[in-house]
Amino acid sequence: MNVSGEKQQHKESIRLADEAVAAAAKIVAQDDYRLQYHVMPEAGWMNDPNGLIYFKGEYHLFYQHHPYSDKWGPMHWGHVTSKDLLHWKHLPIALAPTEPYELGQSGGYGCWSGSAIEQDGVLTLIYTGHVDGRQPMEVQCAATSVDGITFDKHPANPLIAVSPDEGNTGFRDPKVWRHGELWYMVIGSGREGKGQALLYRSADLEEWAYMGVAAESDGTHGDMWECPDLFPLGDKHVLVLSPMNMEGAKNLYMVGEMDYESGKFTPEQEAMLDHGPDFYAAQTLLDNQGRRIMIAWMDHWGAEMAREDRGWYGAMTVPRELVLMLDGKLASRPVPELELLREEGIMVSGVTLAAGESAVWSLKNGQGCEWIVEFDLEGIQAKLLELSLLVSEDGQERTVIRYLPSERKLLLDCCTSGAGDTSISAVTLPETSSTLKLQVFVDRSSIEVFVNDGQYALTSRVYPTALRGGLTMKAEGGSVSLQSLHMWNLKSIGS
Ligand code: FRU
């Protein structure tokens, strides 16, 4: 087919996919578990954030999207934009699989994850064309747009048609950035059971030269690295990964040094970006204020409720700013724009709970709320401090945050959150922390907990049947004094 025929076909595929979403959206909008201020699809399936970029005064967020059902399937790129990281507008689907390198027979094909860059006012998406059973199965492609809405596939696609090493597991999820005069791209891969980030470079975004393996697992970081993202932060570089088959972790970052000549990234520190069960495929962008902002998919694979046919699936985390701390680790902090969602609030200070005592603070509605509570760790005599939220009338359903002072351990227990799984996530506060500060965002079917200004984050989907806004705090085996508690209902802005 000639170029104009290809463009026409792409337009037509997008029209049909948009129609399918629009037809389902009205019913989906009624669903009880829709979130109030997080990005989610109007209908259909959503996974990874793709192509995060600040372009011509707006934040663009693309995402892995199956418009025809609430199950993962042939991948399209959904698209939303925002001027303020709060109000997101749904735009037409940006990419639909139409070309041989992205079109197959079974469900395992499509325009898979990737990134976006801008040059001279042109927005370029760089993504993986994936077709199960095709040889090669994964190739790297581009599509361009001037208005940031309508994209044409690059006539020279696939730009990278073969993986540099035939024996690799996976060759996908290109993330492109500019350094000096050149473009660089990391691609997720794996070899002999070790996840890898492969590095390419280019002067013109078309001809890509392979530079080698920028970083690889030491044997403990999973066998395939999905969605790598490599970027400068302060005077360091950070590599963000979604490792497959890594014991105890679904996400990871490494802080280290990048040598652009040799193409090698040398990690110095590593830790998880988020310790909850539902955080995957994080991607970042650099905005016009110089902030490195990260959004991830609150994935919730495998949980009972999420599998039910609700006509939609998947949501993104709140945008979080990444900050390099003095100890060389990363903090991830909800962006301050979220404060604009706060409605009426409660403010409490200087409350002490005796052993066995509990206190309840209620909010009008529990659908969307935020609270921040601070404790001086010295002031906790209790053996156990328990904070319960989303508690049902009979108390059977609840989401619980526990702090165990003797171990300095903080737990997020979602076993009775209606999500049908049994997840308890934990972080241990370092000896150096003198305070425990929790900032918690609840949005109907999600909870995000930030500890000590983003030193740790824990994200989970929750599916409570009953909605009761507020917080129950209980001390066991000793007293607890809280320094302050702020609670707000958050405005629903939908998306
Ligand atoms: C991560 C991932 C990516 C891939 C995409 C397909 O969730 O598996 O590696 O590009 O999803 O939807």
Structure overview:
With 495 residues, this protein is mainly beta. It folds into two domains: 3-334, Tachylectin-2, Chain A, CATH 2.115.10; 339-490, Exo-inulinase, domain 1 (Jelly Rolls). The protein contains two helices and 33 strands. It has helices spanning 3-29, 304-307, and strands at 44-55, 58-66, 76-82, 89-95, 109-119, 122-131, 138-145, 152-153, 171-179, 182-191, 194-202, 209-216, 224-233, 236-244, 252-259, 264-271, 280-286, 292-297, 312-313, 320-324, 330-334, 342-353, 358-362, 368-380, 384-389, 399-404, 409-413, 424-428, 435-443, 446-451, 456-461, 470-476, 480-490. A six-stranded antiparallel sheet has the order 22-33-24-29-30-31, with no helix packed on it. It has a six-stranded antiparallel sheet with strand order 23-32-25-26-27-28, with no helix packed on it. Strands 4-3-2-1-19 form a five-stranded mixed sheet, covered by helices on one side. It is globular. The two termini are 37 Å apart. The model has no long low-confidence stretch (mean pLDDT 95).
Taking all residues together, what is the mean pLDDT?
95
Strand order of the largest sheet: 22-33-24-29-30-31
Largest β sheet strand count, sense and barrel closure: 6 strands, antiparallel
Q: How much helicity do the residues have?
A: under 10%
Distance between the termini: 37 Å
The total of beta strands comes to 33
Query: Residue ranges: pLDDT <50 for 5 or more in a row?
Result: none
Radius of gyration: 23 Å
Number of domains: 2
Q: Roughly what fraction of the amino acids lie in strands?
A: over 45%
CATH second-level architecture of the largest domain: 5 Propeller
CATH superfamily of the largest domain: Glycosyl hydrolase domain, family 43
Which hetero compounds are present in the coordinates?
Answer: beta-D-fructofuranose
Structural class based on helices, strands and sheet pairing? mainly beta
Task: Categorize the overall geometry.
Answer: globular
